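Troubleshooting: if your tokenizer reports a length mismatch, compare your output against this known-good record of 106 residues.
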Amino acid sequence: MYGARVRPLLVWGLPAAGPGAVALVSLGTNPSLWWTVVGAVVGGVGMGVFGVAWETALARHIPDRELPRVCSYDALGSFLAIPVGSCRSARCRWWPEPLPSLSSVA
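Known-good structure output:
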């Protein structure tokens, strides 16, 4: 993306983050090590593109005096999602039954 002029950035950034699931799906289904490595590389590149697009969009569209607060709320929301995702995929002491996942529904 060196020198590429893409507008709006998040139209390309959000779909670029999607291939990050390939490595996770390959870990869950266990096809082979090569699929996991390829998925991790593709997902890493996609997350890099998403990160650049997200940070650039924040810097362009949020006023300077409000940017620290917006970034703090962004980080808080990201870190609050981690325990919710863990409880959806595994048993927790206070959440006795795991919620159905895609593999148990199919």
